[in-house]
Design brief:
Layout lengths: L3 E3 L2 E7 L10 E7 L5 E3 L3 E6 L6 E6 L4 E7 L19 E8 L9 E5 L7 E2 L1 H6 L8 E6 L14 E8 L4 E11 L5 E4 L18 E5 L10 E6 L2 E6 L4 E6 L4
Antiparallel strand pairs: 1-4, 2-3, 2-16, 5-18, 6-13, 6-15, 7-12, 8-11, 8-13, 9-10, 9-12, 13-14, 16-17
C-alpha cells in the first residue's frame, strides 16, 4: 500500500476548568499543517494527550495609583544576569493570561521590559485582538518591534508586568511568558521555569503576586474531544486521552 498524504487540522477541545476559571471548553491546536499534510504508512494514526494544570502567578491589587510587579528571569536576583532573549532570532513576546476578576482596566496596564519608561506599551489592543481578558486562559502576542527601539532585548533581567498606570483593582493569572518566533523560544516564565524572583509583596508601589502550583489531578478534564478538520472525530473520558484516526482511502 502506498503512503497516504492527507492535509489535516487537528485540535483538542478540553472540557474542564481550573479553580475560578470558566467552565467553557478550551481548545488546543496540536497540528495545523495546511497543504503540507501528513505523510504516513497504513490506514490508522493514533493520537494521545495528557493534560496537567499549569503553575501560574496569581496577581492581585485593590489599590489605586501607579504600581508594578517585577518578574525576574533569575531565581535569586532581579538585576543579574542580563540575558539575551533574541539570540536565536525571536521576534515576539507571548503572554498567557486569565482574568479571575470581573473587570480589569487593560488600557491602564502596561509591560515595561527592564523598567523602561520610553513609550510604555499598553496591553489593551493585544488583549482585544486575542479575545483575552475573560475567565479563561488566552495567549496574547506582541511583536518586539512594537516596543520603543531603545529597549535592549539582548540585556534583560526583569520585566515590569503588570505595570499599573492607575488601573486599580485586578485579579489575574499569568501562566507563561516567552519570547518566540526564532529558532528556539526563550521561556521567561512557565512550565519548567517557575522559580523566578519577583517583588510581589504588596508593599509600597508594588502589586501582590503568589506562585500557585495546583496539585496533580486537582482539575481533571471531564472529557476530551478530538476534532479533525473541525469535525468531531472521537471523545475520551480517561487520561491518557486517546483516539485512533482511521482512514480507508486506497
Amino acid at each position: 500500500m502506498k503512503n497516504k498524504y492527507i492535509p489535516v487540522f487537528l485540535a483538542l477541545a478540553i472540557l474542564f476548568a481550573l479553580p475560578a476559571v470558566s467552565v467553557n471548553a478550551q481548545t488546543i491546536t496540536i497540528a495545523k499543517l495546511g497543504s503540507a499534510g501528513i505523510n504516513y504508512p497504513g490506514d490508522t494514526i493514533s493520537f494521545s494527550a495528557e493534560v496537567s494544570d499549569p503553575a501560574y502567578l496569581h496577581i492581585t491589587n485593590t489599590l489605586t495609583g501607579y504600581r508594578k510587579l517585577k518578574i525576574g528571569y533569575s531565581s535569586s536576583n532581579l538585576y543579574s544576569p542580563l540575558v539575551d532573549v533574541t539570540a536565536t532570532g525571536n521576534q515576539y513576546l507571548e503572554i498567557t493570561f486569565c482574568n479571575f476578576g470581573n473587570v480589569t482596566d487593560w488600557s491602564k496596564i502596561q509591560i515595561r521590559p527592564q523598567g523602561s519608561t520610553a513609550n510604555p506599551l499598553s496591553l489593551a489592543p493585544y488583549i482585544i485582538a486575542a479575545g483575552a481578558g475573560g475567565p479563561s486562559w488566552k495567549t496574547i502576542t506582541i511583536p518586539l518591534s512594537a516596543f520603543d527601539p531603545t529597549i535592549n532585548f539582548k540585556q534583560l533581567s526583569f520585566l515590569e508586568l503588570p505595570y499599573s498606570a492607575g488601573a486599580g483593582s485586578m485579579d489575574i493569572g499569568i501562566s507563561r511568558i516567552a519570547f518566540t518566533g526564532g529558532g528556539t523560544p526563550f521561556l521567561w516564565f512557565g512550565q519548567g521555569h517557575t522559580n523566578n524572583i519577583q517583588n510581589g509583596n504588596g508593599g509600597s508601589g508594588e502589586i501582590s503576586a503568589l506562585l500557585v502550583t495546583p496539585l496533580p489531578g486537582s482539575s481533571t478534564p471531564g472529557r476530551i474531544d478530538f476534532y479533525v478538520d473541525n469535525v468531531l472525530a472521537d471523545s475520551d473520558i480517561v487520561q491518557p486521552y486517546s483516539f485512533k484516526w482511521v482512514t480507508r482511502s486506497a
